[in-house]
Amino acid sequence: MTLKSIELSSFKSFGKKSVVNFTTPVTAIVGPNGSGKSNIVEAIRFVLGEQSMKSLRGKGGVDLIFKGSKSMSQANRASVTITFDNKDKIFSFTNSGLGVSLDYDEVTVTREVYADGANKYLINGTEVRLKDINDLLASVNIGSSGHHIISQGEADRVLNANSRDRRGMIEDALGLKVYQFRIKETERKLDKTVLNMKEVSAMRREVVPHLNFLKKQVEKLERAREMREELGSLYKDYLSKESAYIKHETARLHHKRRIIDENLLSLDERIESINKNKDTKESVLNFKEALNQKELYMSGLRARKDELSRKLGRVEGSIDSIMRGINRAPEIKEDTISKEAWQSFADDLESCIDEANRTEVISELKDIFSRIKNRLGSIRVTSNKDEVNNAKEELKREYLELESVREGIVTDIELITKEEEDVLVSIGIIRAEEKEFENENRDSEKVVYELLSQKNVLNSDLHSISFEEEKLAQIKNAFDFEMNEAGALVGREVLGFNNIEVDGANIIRTSQDESRRKIERIKIKLEDAGALGGGDLLKEYEDTKERDIFLEKELNDLQKSIESLRTLIVDLKETLDTEFKQGVEKINKQFQDFFSLMFGGGSAFLSVTMEHKKSRKKDELEEVSEDSEDDNELGFERGIEINVTLPQKKVKDLHMLSGGERSLTSIALLFAISQVNPPPFLVLDETDAALDEANSRKYGNMIENLSSCSQLIVVTHNRETMSRAQVLYGVTMDIMGASKLLSIKLDDATVYAK
Fold this sequence. Notes:
By secondary structure, the protein is of the alpha/beta class.
């Protein structure tokens, strides 16, 4: 894993976006004082999670934001993004449920700061917490103590730090922060588990007294168990018989109702059939009414016949009168007849016609009489024989016509007579049928009356059945109530009475009533024993008992968890202690080598000390396990002291070293630490400022050695140091008042260094 680049945007003096690429083992950053080269180092601190504003040379977040210049406006936020090569996929989280994927060839970490001091952290563009940033960096040996970033002041800090802080720096440099994170996380889990155990213990202390009370109540219920069993037996016997009785009665009444319904249906069908036939006879009555109409018609025929007979008589009388007059006419013997003789004949004949007219005659006769009178008028004035004879013949013809009229009347009378005979026959038939209908109707009414009487009897029986059914329904409702009551008092198992075979026809109601009284007596005993409602009490007892068992199990599980967590903490601390000791031994070997190289001899080593914890700050004290048998855990903690001996010079304390000696000592120690557990990259910010030319060469040699293990970013003014870099970045302040980056190739850097 290597550092690929860092991007600054509106961070401190970098008003514009600026990118520094780290493509070689050693990259040097140079520039005049005040140009902003140290701001690159602070940007690295910032993006890696530095929380101390003092370390970032500011008082608040606003001091980290570009403040603007004459030609550039002030920014409202600053951001820094650092990019790591992740082709070997060594980045990881202890919390796998974070939801940030690291399966990329590059991993970017971004931090943004706003004018109000708010910070925003991102990993691969996903917003995360500062804790997640620290967790991620710890997985690649980049700790929060900043051992991988060494400035001139930081180099001296390791010498000025107290033994406890120095121990923290060593642990961070050795990559032991992972164990510390796990220890702290486990301790938090332990504290939470202990708190849960206290809460569960408190809950169990509340449950136990109530459980004891419920237990006594359950014992009372147990004493009532025998009575409940007896009650259950009685209920089973009673309910089985009651159920059988209800089923039997229901079936009996249903069968009886079905038979009655069938009989009623049959009676209704017979009555309907009779009434239907009765309706047919009524149609005969309607025909009888038609007979009455025929009789009226018959009366009309008779009246017409009588009228025609009267007319016939009048016609015949008139004809006889006329014929008598004609017969009295004088015989024509001569060619001429005296006028007086024909006048007399005409007068006689006209007198006969007038007599006939005085009676009511039909229209045909009136026409004939009119023609005769006209003819008589001519007779009165003639005496010619031929004319008289002609007139006489003509009168005879008129007579014959009158005779034809008479015959027509006679024919009409005969037809009416025949029609009267037919009507009389029809009247006879209808009267016979009427009499027959009356006889049959009397018989039908008698049958219907008998059927209706039977129907009334059946309806009365049906009413009785309905009354019995209502009474049975009351018994059924009481049975349902008793069944529910039995289930509540004795238990649902009492409903198994359905499996008992009982003959419902042999159930005696008085025996059932006696069983019911026995049940009531036992119920009263159970009430006196306080057994009613026992189901709820027993359920509460079982629930409380289950809760007590659950809480007891929880306590056991929590106790095991506490023991397991304490064991894990002890194991982690032992592992931390072992690796710390081994790491100190390795550092001492490298420290001695680098120290001898820098000073040309002498000795240097780190020693582990023990300190009382009371010397620690109050807010840093941690609760110690009561079960710990380690004296160090009870009141002591480890620290680190630095011991040096200069060649040809007696020095008993670090404070007695000169500034240059302190600088060389701190560099030797920091390089030794870096050699033991090399960080992915190492930032050296003017750590060579106090070195002379000879020591600068030694410093340059050590840089080359370190570059084989870690990627180096060196901020320097030292030409010797510059000559060991492959790429130089120059930082200048442009005319707009913002820092500007210039890259210099190696050949140019070599010329510049010389």
